[in-house]
Amino acid sequence: MMTRAEYIESLRRLNLKVYFMGELIENPVDHPMIRPSMNSVAKTYELAEKPEYQDLMTVYSPLIGKRINRFCHLHQSTEDLVNKVKMQRLMGQKTAACFQRCVGMDAFNAIFSTTYEMDQKLGTEYHKRFTEYMKFVQENDLTVDGAMTDPKGDRSLSPSRQEDPDMYMHVVEVREDGIVVRGAKAHQTGAVNSHEHLIMPTVAMKEEDKDYAISFAVPSDAEGVFMVYGRQSCDTRKMEENADMDLGNAQYGGHEALVVFDNVFVPNERVFMCREYEFAGMMVERFAGYHRQSYGGCKVGVGDVLIGAAALAADYNGVPKANHIKDKLIEMIHLNETLYACGIACSAEGEKMPAGNYQINLLLANVCKQNITRMPYEIARLAEDIAGGLMVTMPSEQDLRSEKIGPYVEKYLQGATGTSTENRMRILRLIENITLGTAAVGYRTESMHGAGSPQAQRIMISRQGNLAAKKELAKVIAKVDESKDRK
Q: What is the DSSP letter of 75?
């Protein structure tokens, strides 16, 4: 396993092509806009080194016969699935941001089981290839960008009917030694901090869409790959000189990028699906299930930090004993633990796949994510309620430090007797960061649209809910005689 320092150095060795605000970034690792998100990923390496977190952060791999970082693991039991969620909650607690390695982990498990079943039915060698790829990932402790979401263009049209064929990633040439692909993947979490891009199809396919049914892996600095860094609310605060307090969370963050593949060559050994359109939906469904489980961990960990910040804001405001404040904090805890319960439940109810790895209960994973599309918004609303309006009207840190006006800021932003004005401002900025600032991308909007927008889960709940069986249960209890019904 890599150390934190080794991970950072490994990124420096990559020849990444990253654009931000129209300019090519020469050094992504130390760029003030990107560094906090890189710190979040580095934390996954740092905690894996600590003995007290070994059982959560690391696990024995039967593939290479060594202990590895859990983010590179193929789940071997329901206990593994549960520990995954616990690890993600821990990471959320430590960073209060998106730590970016979950998508790759979820892609590993979805592709592993899907390629096995493809080979069984079609006689292909995709599973063998992917197993070798997983050994490579585990031996080198890589961070991998699991990439599913295509730009999609006109959502009313299938991939093959788009006016611009590049709106979905597709094969443009099949060679004896590999394939050439073109397209893009949007909203890619942690792409700039990743060693590899692992590509999956984004929707179920029909035969007419077979050129779009592809899965493969390429290095992040492969020829023809470049990234356009996404904007976040309040992100330019990171560019301010000596930025600290006004960032809310100066050390950690997340990011998303548009990753463009401009006629990229992929050697055969890194191709895991090529035109097997009938298996595209299976891969999409399994990945979505794993990733919807993930949100029952990571969002809960960030929620823990937000609840703690709201409680501290109440302390600094001098109202910790007010009944309505206590009730709001209780509701925040209740909602957060409900999300965690769903993540644990879909893990505990998981099952072994034909490939040998374990998959979560898909129905409960979709219920988990459906709750995630709602409850973090209410937790955030309650945090803003408790914090008060000062959270969004506060003067800057520079004002607090000013010789001329600093004493007035110190005097008039004083909260409860005996408390520090600076500490009060720091906590309010943290709440602002999670609910409205850069971290809101990962806590609020990603809760809505990440791992599929709300309707996607409702479709899966409808499919998995087995309404017909529930009708039969009711018929037996009520002694329904179907012969009496008009046909």
A: P
Given the residues 102, 274, 342, 368, the one annotated as active site: 102
Active site residue 98: yes
Residue 95 is among the residues annotated as catalytic for this protein: no
Q: In the 8-state DSSP scheme, what is residue 70?
A: G
Catalytic annotation, pick one of 7, 44, 98, 168: 98
From 196, 256, 276, 384, active-site residue: 256
223 included as an active-site residue: no
Q: What is the pLDDT along the chain (487 residues), one digit of tens a residue?
A: 999 999 999 999 999 999 999 999 989 999 999 999 999 999 999 999 999 999 999 999 999 999 999 999 999 999 999 999 999 999 999 999 999 999 999 999 999 999 999 999 999 999 999 999 999 999 999 999 999 999 999 999 999 999 999 999 999 999 999 999 999 999 999 999 999 999 999 999 999 999 999 999 999 999 999 999 999 999 999 999 889 999 999 999 999 999 999 999 999 999 999 999 999 999 999 999 999 999 999 999 999 999 999 999 999 999 999 999 999 999 999 999 999 999 999 999 999 999 999 999 999 999 999 999 999 999 999 999 999 999 999 999 999 999 999 999 999 999 999 999 999 999 999 999 999 999 999 999 999 999 999 999 999 999 999 999 999 999 999 999 999 987 6
- Ligand-binding annotation for 393, yes or no, is no
Q: Which of 295, 316, 358, 443 is catalytic?
A: 295
Domain spans of the chain, in order of start: 2-279, 282-470
Q: Give the Å distances, CA to CA, from 397 to 13, 52, 220.
A: 36, 36, 38
List own/partner pairs for 389-393 with CB under 8 A and 24 or more apart.
390/428, 391/313, 391/428, 391/429, 391/431, 391/432, 392/432, 392/436
Place of tokens 């003030």: 32
Side chain identity, residue 45: Y
Annotated catalytic, 49?
A: no
Q: Active-site residue 73, yes or no? A: no
Could you say which architecture CATH assigns to the domain 282-470? Up-down Bundle (1.20)
Query: Which pTM was predicted?
Result: 0.96
The CATH T-level fold of domain 2-279 is Butyryl-CoA Dehydrogenase, subunit A; domain 2 (2.40.110)
Given this chain, do its domains 2-279 and 282-470 carry the same CATH topology? no
102 is catalytic: yes
- Could you give the C-alpha distances from 89 to 107, 127, 303, 304, 336, in angstroms and in order? 19, 31, 9, 9, 11
